[in-house]
Hints:
single chain; alpha/beta; five-stranded mixed beta sheet; elongated
Amino acid sequence: MRALKRVEGINVVPLIDVVLVLLAIVLTISTFVASGAIKLDLPKAASSKEQQPQKIEIAINENGTMFWNGKEKSKSELSQAIMTLGSDASVSVLGDKKAFFNDFIFILDQLKLQKIEKISIVTKREA
Length: 127
């Protein structure tokens, strides 16, 4: 009678095959999502109108003075102006490197309370 072979190690080839298939699936799906390649034919409506997203720039200087599209605003005025924005607004926040972090957090908090998700923080590229 023959003796059974002894298993010296785990065969990882099938595991690698499964991982590669899963990687291919993830990469395929992520390219559709990232590039917006999924085409939709949206229905038409007579009452529809095209809306451009608002682009707002909020700045803080080193003294803590806040600006809304270049115009100086107090914290309460800035808060009221942010309340007028829709959730699709695109907001750029510029902060002087010597500005107080508390002012920066105040602006981000007000934007998040309005459910604004398109927030960009503007920086200068190091040379």
